[in-house]
Write a structure and sequence with these properties.
It is a single chain. The chain is mainly alpha-helical. The protein has a domain of 45 residues. Helix content is 51%, strand content 0%. The protein has 3 helices and no strands. Helix 1 packs across helix 2. The chain is elongated, with a radius of gyration of 23 Å. It starts with 30 loop residues before the first helix and ends with a helix.
Length: 84
């Protein structure tokens, strides 16, 4: 390796554009979650684990969520039953 490099005539390489309706973010996931998604892609014969994570989040988002008050009442009832 040379001691000195001349970058005076260097140019920046291509920057990949983010597809429309997508936003590049940084996210921290537990290793076991990331490993699971990567395994799913490997077992399916290839693909993109990031796309699979996006699809899982999208599916969760579209599910009808239980209203907060109902969830709290259910949890409190379950805890009272366990305590009695």
């Amino acid at each position: 390796m040379r001691r000195e490099y001349d970058f005076s005539k260097g140019t920046r390489g291509a920057v990949l554009r983010v597809p429309p309706k997508k936003t590049r973010i940084t996210i921290r996931l537990d290793n076991d979650i990331l490993d699971w998604f990567r395994r799913q892609v490997d077992e399916a014969g290839g693909g993109n684990y990031q796309t699979l994570i996006n699809e899982a989040l999208h599916s969760f988002m579209l599910q009808k969520q239980e209203p907060l008050e109902s969830a709290l009442r259910r949890v409190v009832r379950d805890e009272i039953r366990r305590a009695v």
